[in-house]
Amino acid sequence: MNKILLPLTAVALCFTAQQAMAASISGTGNATAKIIAPLTIAAGGTGYSSGNLNFGTMLSSSAHTVTVGTTDNRTGSNNAMLVSDSNTPKSGLFTVTNTETNPVNGTISVDSSTTISNGTTTLNVTGLNASPTGSTSFENGDTEIKVGGQLAVSQNATAGDYTGTYHVTINY
User: Fold this and answer.
1) CA torsion, points 31, 98, 96, 72, in degrees to nearest 10?
2) Which of 160, 144, 162, 147 is nearest to 113 (CA)?
């Protein structure tokens, strides 16, 4: 008889325990979010019709390098023959716009190198650099980023207009 009562008692206790836990309560919380407008970046800005990094005009009688800094200064090495004309050397310029009232923190990077070509001859552009660079706080309004670099001109490079592209990236 004890063998039958013990299992029945265990089953009865299970039903009693389940009945005691049949009540529940709940609460309600709010879910919220604020979406802000993304930063925008555009080539050009004050005094610039485009974001072009322009090394200016030069002769190619000897191999040399031409550097344009982020302050628009141009220098040459290895007897570079730099020509002063209407093709004014300029650093590249990009304008980053933040339409929000709060600053947005980001990191600026630029390609380290690129090439430019006139269709038949390719020249290397190295040492691309930005100012500002690295971590930057983009305040409400516009932030200008200037880009400089160094052009390697080969001896007797083919005459012509050379073009190429490079990228400025903002991670935020």
Assistant:
1) -140
2) 147
- Residue 64's SS3 state is strand
**pTM of this structure:** 0.78
Distance, CA of 24 to CA of 157 (rounded, Å): 83
Q: How many domains does the chain have?
A: 1
Closest among 70, 87, 69 to 162, alpha carbons compared? 87
- Tell me whether strands 134-138 and 168-171 are parallel, antiparallel or unpaired: unpaired
The boundaries of the domain holding residue 74 are: 40-171
Q: Among 4-8, 140-144, 157-161, which stretch is predicted with the lowest mean pLDDT?
A: 4-8
Is 9's pLDDT higher than 60?
no
